């Protein structure tokens, strides 16, 4: 039996396979034998290992020299070492993408561990009898998952793995002898993105933005209903890396009724809390959308750190959703305001009134910025693609803040009508004598500095308004 290497410094090394890491482990030997910390999350994260969240520990015992297993790519990450003995480890990248086919090999004794990302083909050969090969994985094994494995033949000529013991002399399973050559391997696709609430304004804008992406799935309330948690249990979450929650109960006044209050809390708070727990369990990035209604609107400009002070039930339920989602380790909460997308909305209504000769009174003391749904979708794409730091971001269009009356006037003007037909009124006067109206924050404008610091330049609200109005159907 070979001597175990002792006295190494803990270290992490990169390899030609992206994300595949070699870890040098300090092994402490004495007259009794040796000891090592095989996995130490805090120290290893500090050296650049991903926080991969292991949930299962497996050990394979290899009785004789020359036992050879592989090449198997599984739909989860692995952290491999040996507890006794020595192996020759070999890996081939079987993930879709440029690095497909990249190979790496190294001898593993107890002073070496390797981190194998999901989709990288894994194989080893025992170099000593009684070798105990041990590995942590971050998904529970299931028979279902076997359908997602990708295999490569141990003798593949393209990979050309230099087995220390020729395969003909090794101990192999019949199954492993039958795996395909590299040219016939179907590469493992990346984990997908799931969009919930796909039929709302934001959901439809995301459908347009990601129309060409085959790795994004869109589902409406019929498939995943945030108010019915059992529909969340039907989703195979391990297939996804990212979930975008575009679903919400957005009826601000409706939420003030007995039934609406219940519904708003179920969809905006309880559902997102369940999603946050799922995201933590499955290492998902959770993108959630919030609102300026979590504030009371007394600050002229809201930044992300402002204390919650929601005025109505909708805002209260959204604030509770924010608190819950913020617990997910990988989350983006996008606080937005005055969303305008496809279908019935304020701009389309004003354009129609202008056309039909109706002179509206419009609230002139609520000030904020529009957020075109396409711009919100672009911001979501940007935060995910740029891997911006997780956290809460304000997202709206840019430019000067304006009141609803200012915006209405602009719509009249840009559709060729007299802007003075719009009469500004106060919120109090507008709703005087009306029942069941939720209180609204007067100041909705949000600071966009944090978003801009990630490299995103929000488009001017009136520039997008102009384009939107021009695209409205005439008549
Ligand atoms: N609209 C705004 O002015 C505004 C302002 C600030 C923040 N926000 C936030 O921005 C986000 C997107 O809003 P939006 O304007 O796109 O809203 P929206 O057009 O009202 O869309 C919401 C979507 O959520 C779906 N939904 C409702 N209840 C559901 C449930 N129980 N389970 C699953 N889906 C459900 C709706 O489905 P159905 O089609 O079946 O009804 C709808 O498709 C929301 O988080 C909202 O709170 C909006």
Hetero compounds: NADP nicotinamide-adenine-dinucleotide phosphate
Task: Report, as a whole number of angstroms, the end-to-end distance.
Answer: 87 Å
> Portion of residues in helices?
10-25%
What is the helix tally? Answer: 12
Sheet with most strands: 6 strands, antiparallel
Rg, rounded, reads 28 Å
Large-scale geometry: elongated
The helix-and-strand class reads alpha/beta
**Percentage of residues in DSSP E strands:** 15-25%
Sheet with the most strands: spatial strand order: 1-2-10-7-12-5
Task: Report mean pLDDT, rounded to a whole number.
Answer: 95
How many DSSP-defined strands?
Answer: 25
Q: Which spans of ≥5 residues are poorly predicted at pLDDT below 50?
A: none
């Amino acid at each position: 039996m070979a001597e175990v290497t002792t006295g190494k410094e803990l270290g992490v090394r990169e390899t030609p396979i992206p994300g595949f890491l070699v870890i040098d482990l300090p092994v402490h030997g004495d007259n009794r034998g040796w000891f090592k910390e095989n996995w130490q999350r805090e120290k290893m994260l500090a050296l650049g290992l991903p926080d991969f969240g292991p949930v299962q520990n497996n050990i394979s015992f290899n009785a004789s020299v020359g036992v050879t297993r592989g090449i198997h790519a599984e739909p989860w990450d692995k952290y491999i070492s040996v507890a006794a003995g020595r192996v020759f480890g070999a890996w081939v990248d079987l993930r879709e993408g440029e690095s497909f086919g990249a190979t790496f090999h190294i001898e593993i004794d107890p002073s070496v561990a390797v981190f194998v990302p999901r989709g990288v083909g894994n194989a080893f050969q025992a170099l000593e009898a009684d070798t105990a090969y041990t590995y942590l994985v971050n998904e529970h094994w299931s028979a279902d998952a076997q359908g997602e494995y990708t295999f490569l033949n141990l003798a593949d000529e393209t990979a050309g793995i230099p087995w220390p013991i020729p395969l003909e002399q090794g101990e192999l399973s019949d199954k492993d002898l039958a795996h395909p050559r590299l040219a016939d391997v179907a590469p493992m696709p990346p984990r997908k993105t799931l969009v919930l609430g796909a039929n709302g304004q934001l959901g439809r804008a995301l459908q347009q933005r990601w129309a060409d992406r085959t790795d994004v799935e869109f589902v409406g309330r019929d498939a995943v209903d945030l108010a019915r948690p059992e529909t969340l249990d039907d989703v195979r979450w391990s297939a996804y890396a990212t979930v975008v929650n575009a679903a919400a109960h957005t009826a601000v006044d409706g939420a003030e009724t007995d039934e609406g209050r219940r519904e708003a809390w179920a969809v905006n708070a309880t559902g997102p809390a369940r999603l946050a727990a799922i995201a933590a369990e499955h290492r998902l990035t959770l993108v959630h959308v919030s609102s300026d209604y979590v504030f009371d609107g007394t600050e002229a400009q809201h930044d992300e750190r402002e204390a919650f002070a929601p005025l109505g039930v909708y805002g209260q339920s959204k604030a509770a959703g924010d608190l819950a989602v913020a617990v997910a380790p990988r989350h983006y909460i996008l606080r937005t305001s005055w969303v305008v997308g496809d279908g019935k909305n304020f701009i389309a209504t004003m354009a129609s009134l202008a056309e039909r000769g109706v002179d509206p009174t419009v609230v002139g003391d609520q000030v904020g910025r529009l957020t075109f749904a396409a711009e919100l979708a672009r911001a979501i794409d940007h935060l995910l693609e740029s891997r911006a730091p997780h956290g809460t971001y304000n997202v709206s269009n840019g430019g000067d803040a304006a009141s609803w009356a200012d915006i209405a006037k602009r719509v009249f003007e840009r559709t060729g009508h007299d802007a003075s037909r719009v009469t500004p009124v106060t919120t109090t006067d507008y709703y005087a004598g009306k029942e069941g109206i939720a209180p609204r924050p007067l100041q909705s404008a949000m600071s966009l500095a944090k978003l801009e610091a990630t490299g995103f330049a929000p488009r001017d609200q009136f520039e997008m308004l102009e384009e939107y109005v021009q695209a409205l159907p005439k008549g």
